[in-house]
């Protein structure tokens, strides 16, 4: 039995999703003539109560487009030091938009409104970059799938309004936060200027992310997507997977969360595990006690048992549960962990 827990992006379309994809009515989306893409964009916009949406190949491209919309070269955005836009998007903030990042030392990828306000450069002090944007990531990848306190997000919105800053949400795994905390997606739509959501993380789709915002911002995004090379043709086949996922794969994320909690509990009971980060959703981040077992040895033993996980650097390892990780795989993996040592 092969078990791949590297990420929730390793899933393959289910039979039902493939059937929906093959039955899709398509056109040329570069000309906005693909009916299935148009339907997906309308559904996601309605789900979050936002004016408009645009389908993209990747979450990195949606985030980079949002940053481009809200900034000018030489500006500065504020984000947590763990933020995906800073750590895992290839330096695109500077390459694509000519923008720098003011990094905040938050808790598990989450910063406070006070920290955000303290990070804003004085707008009349022309020696420093002009602060124009605040970026949030929910759930936090590097923070172990942590979910933000919505009240803190509202406080940050107030800071943005007071200082005339734009507010972007990297919601690649926002679906997980919505399910975990029972939150209203439309509340997020009211709070943020733009939101990026990923359909290939947790939702089971092979490709795709969606950027949401005002009609004016999405009109700008269409041009930026073209510049970034993100225009696709008969992408309705991919959009159909997204429509299927919205109807079938959101509530089931709770199953991934439960499995993650059970893995975390077992890891915490093993004497060679130094630390397990708090687990809220489908990501488990933990550290090996190198005096008892090296990370390399632990990974090697997993590999011998046909289990794949990923290292995050600085001694941290990551496990991510997903819809292709079955109950049978879960039981088998727990047994494997009990035999390592």
Automatic annotation (TrEMBL):
Superkingdom in the source lineage: Bacteria
The answer to keyword Iron-sulfur applying to this record is no
Looking at the record, the residues that make up the Aromatic amino acid beta-eliminating lyase/threonine aldolase domain are 4-289
Which keywords belong to this entry? Lyase, Pyridoxal phosphate
NCBIfam families per UniProt: GntG_guanitoxin
Q: Does the keyword section mention Lyase?
A: yes
Which family does the entry's similarity section mention? Belongs to the threonine aldolase family.
Q: Which cofactor does it need?
A: pyridoxal 5'-phosphate
Task: State the name under which the record lists this protein.
Answer: L-threonine aldolase
Q: Which GO terms describe its cellular component?
A: cytosol
Pfam families referenced in this protein's UniProt entry, alphabetically: Beta_elim_lyase
Q: Name one GO biological process term.
A: glycine biosynthetic process
Q: Which GO terms describe its molecular function?
A: L-allo-threonine aldolase activity
Q: Which residues carry this modification: N6-(pyridoxal phosphate)lysine?
A: 201
Q: Do you know which InterPro entries this protein is assigned to? A: ArAA_b-elim_lyase/Thr_aldolase, Low_specificity_L-TA-like, PyrdxlP-dep_Trfase, PyrdxlP-dep_Trfase_major, PyrdxlP-dep_Trfase_small
């Amino acid at each position: 039995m092969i078990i791949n827990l590297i990420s929730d992006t390793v899933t393959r379309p289910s039979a039902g999703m493939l059937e929906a994809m093959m039955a899709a009515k398509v056109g040329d989306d570069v000309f906005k003539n693909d009916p299935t893409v148009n339907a997906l964009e309308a559904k996601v916009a309605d789900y979050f109560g936002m004016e408009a949406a645009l389908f993209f190949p990747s979450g990195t491209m949606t985030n980079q487009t949002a940053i481009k919309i809200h900034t000018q070269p030489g500006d500065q955005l504020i984000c947590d030091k763990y933020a995906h836009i800073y750590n895992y998007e290839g330096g695109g903030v500077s390459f694509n938009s000519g923008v720098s990042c003011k990094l905040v030392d938050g808790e598990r990828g989450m910063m406070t409104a006070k920290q955000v306000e303290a990070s804003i450069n004085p707008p009349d002090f022309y020696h420093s970059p002009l602060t124009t944007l605040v970026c949030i990531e929910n759930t936090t990848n590097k923070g172990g799938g942590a979910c933000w306190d919505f009240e803190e997000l509202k406080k940050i919105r107030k800071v943005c309004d007071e200082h005339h800053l734009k507010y972007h949400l990297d919601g690649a795994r926002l679906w997980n936060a919505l399910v975990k905390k029972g939150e209203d997606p439309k509340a997020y739509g009211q709070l943020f200027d733009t939101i990026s959501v990923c359909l290939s993380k947790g939702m089971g789709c092979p490709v795709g992310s969606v950027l949401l915002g005002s009609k004016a911002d999405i009109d700008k995004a269409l041009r930026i997507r073209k510049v970034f090379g993100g225009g696709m043709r008969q992408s309705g086949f991919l959009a159909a997977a997204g429509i299927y996922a919205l109807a079938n794969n959101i509530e089931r994320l709770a199953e991934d969360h439960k499995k993650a909690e059970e893995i975390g509990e077992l890891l915490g009971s093993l004497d060679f595990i130094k630390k397990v980060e708090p687990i809220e959703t489908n990501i488990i981040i933990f550290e090996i006690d190198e005096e008892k077992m090296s990370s390399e040895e632990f990974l090697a033993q997993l590999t011998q048992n046909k289990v794949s996980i990923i290292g995050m650097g600085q001694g941290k390892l990551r496990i991510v549960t997903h819809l292709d990780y079955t109950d049978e795989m879960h039981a088998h993996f727990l047994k494997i962990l009990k035999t390592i040592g």
